Amino acid sequence: MRSSMLAAAIALAVGSSVSFSAFAQSGISAEEIAALKAQIAALQAQVAELETRTEAQSDINIGTQEALDKMAAENPKVETKGGIKVTSPDKNFEVQIGGRIHFDTYAFDNDLVDPTGTTEFRRARLTFAGKAYGWAYKLENDFAAGGGLEGFRDVFIATEAFGGKVTIGQFKPFRAMEELTSSNEITMLERPFITASGLFAGRQFRQGVGYHRGNDNYTFGVAAFNTRDAAGPRNEGVGASARLTYAPINTPESTLHFGISASTENANQGSPDVRAAVAYAGRRGPSQTIATTTGGSGDSVDHVGLEAAGAFGPLYFQSEYAMATFGAPLDGDQDIRTFYVMGSWMLTGEHKPYKAAAGVFGSPKVGENGAWELTARYDTIENEDVAGLEVASTTLGVNYYVNPNVRFMFNYIRGDNDFTGDNTSQYALRAQLAF
Q1: Angle 134-137-142 (CA atoms, 0-180°, nearest 5)?
Q2: Interacting residues of 419 by C-beta distance below 8 A, sequence separation 6+
Q3: Which terminus of the chain, N or C, has fewer Cβ atoms within 10 Å?
């Protein structure tokens, strides 16, 4: 009976031409056929209603998507990965907000000198960077150095040209690998003597024009600049620098890097003194002047430096050697020699990535459980024309990367000043947040 009723329902549902009399012959009553017809009619009504609802919902979905597309076309795009980035609807304007806080604590084991242990904000920077009609810009102020011109760091505009990037404004000249490494990613609390922490003391940022290009294996940069920064006095001093790097090995787990750089700075009218001076027992510790070229003398400071670095799995090394000549009209030129050797071991197995476009190494990729790094460096600088004028420092440290934005650093620095006989040491701790 059920199979006969099912057959009848199917036949009626598909518009079968089976007649009422045929169903009657099969033993199905007229009442049952009428009930089946009524059920089928109800089902057809429900299907029609569902189709109407589906069409209406499709119209709503299309309208919603059109509204979303219109909003996207009329409103800025906001991204928060690694910082705050806002892009205009037409993509002609872009701004990204970043910053860094480096809070340091210093304690000294005094010898012949008596520096004061202290705390300080080593850096407290706010950075605005982005694009405007294809031109890049960057405006960065370090409030730890001051809220005015003295706090200016990178302040420039730039554009793509001649297969690379042309930069105009205030920036770092292309010289010394560790000098060009971000302070958020340097291995120790302070850079070695071959940088603005020694050989280029007080001359980290210059005003001028630069050109830079690179790919996965090489970089080349050249700059011409005035020997001042935003807070320095107006002067006629000029300088130039160039740097070339090559990485014959550059894979995700292994990198070998070589580089060479050179620079010249002429202390023309109005120029400040050009000095090489080092804090050999850490920042805020005792300082030793190595050489000076008198400002406004017209004499030059010339430098040539070599670089070698590599990262192989969790192991990393970096070394630079430089020779410089400081012009001195009365006492004769003075030749300076400086080098350092630095290494680290990622105890938790991470790898320091190579930033091929800049020719420097960055911070390791940090997982959920953080990362630990052991570090060591030996650093020395010598004036070869003044007997005994040589200083050195040995640094041992450990870094704890809490996450990609937060890092804690500890350094023990043993200073050794052959010129004065001082052997002051420092214990230094840094809490760092960068975004």
Answers
A1: 165
A2: 288, 388, 389, 390, 391
A3: N
Asked whether 8 and 24 are in contact (CB, 8 A), the reply is no
Question: Distance (Å, rounded) from C-alpha 126 to C-alpha 372?
Answer: 27
Residue with the two structure tokens 């890097």 = 257
* Mean per-residue pLDDT of the chain: 91
Question: In degrees rounded to 5, what are phi and psi of residue 67?
Answer: -65, -40
* φ, ψ for residue 321, nearest 5 deg: -130, 135
Measured CA to CA, the distance from residue 21 to residue 12 in angstroms comes to 14
353-382: average pLDDT: 97
What pLDDT shows up at residue 143? 97
Q: What is the DSSP string of 352-363?
A: PPEETTTTEE-P
Strands (E), 84-186: 84-87, 93-109, 118-132, 135-142, 152-161, 164-171
Residues 6+ away with beta carbon under 8 Å from 71: none
pTM value? 0.83
Question: Taking Cα atoms as reference points, which of 273, 279, 342 lies closest to residue 311?
Answer: 342
**Contacts of 208 by beta carbon, 8 Å cutoff, 6+ apart:** 168, 173, 223, 224, 225, 226, 239
The residues pairing with 219 across neighbouring beta strands, listed in sequence order, are 214, 245
Residue 412, class by beta-carbon neighbours within 10 Å (0-12 exposed, 13-18 middle, 19+ buried)? middle
**Model pLDDT, residue 72:** 67
Tokens representing residue 227 in the block: 């020997």
Which is nearest to 394 in space by CA: 348, 426, 371? 426
Give the CA dihedral 169, 170, 174, 180, nearest 10 degrees: -130
If you average pLDDT over residues 7-18, what whole number do you get? 47
- Which run of H or E residues covers position 64? helix 30-74
Specify the pLDDT at position 208: 98
Question: Residue 26 has what pLDDT?
Answer: 60
- Using an 8 Å Cβ cutoff, are 397 and 391 in contact? no
Largest CA distance in the chain: 132
When pLDDT is averaged across residues 150-159 and rounded to a whole number, the result is 97
Residue 18 pLDDT: 46
Stretch (H or E) spanning 229: none
Q: What tokens does 75 get?
A: 């409103």
Q: Which residue do the tokens 């107006």 mark? A: 234
pLDDT at res. 45: 81
| Residue range 125-146, pLDDT digits in tens | 999 999 999 999 999 999 999 8
Q: Residue type for 230, please? A: A
Q: Three-class SS of residue 14?
A: coil
- Burial classification of residue 107, based on how many CB atoms lie within 10 Å of its CB (0-12 exposed, 13-18 middle, 19 or more buried): middle
